[in-house]
Design goal:
alpha+beta; Folate-binding fold; four-stranded antiparallel beta sheet; two-stranded antiparallel ribbon; 2 helices; 6 strands; globular; sarcosine oxidase activity; Sarcosine oxidase subunit delta; SoxD
Length: 101
């Protein structure tokens, strides 16, 4: 079982208290009505789905209920960095290098 530390609560809890919300730092279109069906489908459904170091959005559903971001190695399931929503994405290459990837 994975243990995840909520950056808001400051406690490390089992992964069962959290839900992954997919790729982090996806910018929503400023004018969705101006997008074609193909562009809208691209925004809604297409994600990077990287093997290795990947930035994800998580929610502490059985705790504070807040969203946060995490950088996780999808191969080993190891969390490399957890940070609050709204904070800039860390350099993934540096985190991968520090983790020996």
């Amino acid at each position: 079982m994975l243990l995840i530390e909520c950056p808001y609560c400051g406690v490390e809890r089992p992964e069962l208290e959290f839900r992954c919300g997919g790729e982090a730092h996806i910018a929503r279109p400023e004018d969705p009505s101006g997008k074609t069906d193909e562009e809208w489908a691209e925004f809604l459904y297409m994600r990077t789905n990287t093997k290795g170091v990947y930035a994800e959005r998580w929610r502490h559903i059985h705790g504070c209920g807040r969203f946060f971001n995490a950088v996780r190695d999808t191969v080993s399931d190891k969390f490399l960095k957890i940070y609050k929503a709204g904070e800039p994405m860390p350099d993934l290459a540096s985190l991968a290098k520090e983790a020996g990837k």
